[in-house]
Amino acid sequence: VVSAYHKFGFKLFAEVGKGEAGQNVFMSPHSVATVLSMLYLGAAGDTRRALGKTLHVEDREPEAISEANRELRKTFSELGPGVELIFANSVWVRTGLEFKSDFLEQVRESFEADIRGLDFSDPAGPDLINQWAATKTKGKISRILDRLDPLMVMVLMNALYFKGQWSEKFDPAESKERPFHLPDGKQKPVPMMSRGGSYRYCEGRGFQAVILPYGVGRFGLYLFLPKKGGGLDAFLQDLNEANWE
């Protein structure tokens, strides 16, 4: 399932990138995969087959997806000192409608999702969802919805909050303005951190990469630098699940 989520994540990033050419793209593919996996548990027929194909889990039963996500959540809880991760899910269901109890129980058990009833015609509805997101992200995301369609029957949500302390901290005195090279060849002075040390490093076709670890090293920031002559576009074309592996 992890491999399937990786494949889905890289394809999602590539598609989003097409519509955001020249812009910074920041996303959490695992969050999207989690929400679609919750939906997968309640789907049937052509809808289930389409979701399974999208997530690359079409050969797995919903129960296997549930078990895999349960195990994933366990690994996310073993962070070690120096790292804080909040990974929360919720399902907002329309009050007055009866939903299959086994579906709601599955998403509650496998994804630890909050199940909440909501009147989608109530103008205060978006505020309740926004407050949930703000709480789970410690105020980093305070607003995610402006309105709700009164005809909606369900809203599935995921919130992700991450804060990591560097395993080896940077000295603020070493931060200096240095030239940042833009894709169009221009340069822009920006403050850059600097430090020496021993890190996991990789040099591949058209790029260099390094991992800066957080905490005890279970999490890290992966930084990729396209080589001169190749450029960012060429690097992104090779950024897929197979090459990542």
Number of strands: 8
Show unreliable segments: none
> Gap between N and C termini, in Å?
14 Å
If helices are DSSP runs of H or I spanning 4 or more residues, what is the number of helices?
Answer: 8
Shape, principal axes of CA atoms:
globular
Beta-strand proportion: 25-35%
Which percent bin holds the helix content? 25-40%
The order of strands across the largest sheet is 2-1-3
Largest sheet: number of strands, sense, barrel closure: 3 strands, mixed
Radius of gyration: 21 Å
**H and E order:** HHHHEHEHEEEEEEHH
**What's the rounded overall pLDDT mean?**
91
Structural class: alpha+beta
Task: Give the structure's gist in a few sentences.
The protein is α+β, with helices and mostly antiparallel strands and 245 residues long. It is built from eight helices and eight strands; from the N terminus they run ααααβαβαββββββαα.
Structure description:
With 245 residues, the chain is of the alpha+beta class. It is 37% helix and 25% strand. The chain has eight helices and eight strands. The longest helix is centred in the first third of the chain and has 18 residues, at 2-19. The radius of gyration is 21 Å and the shape is globular.
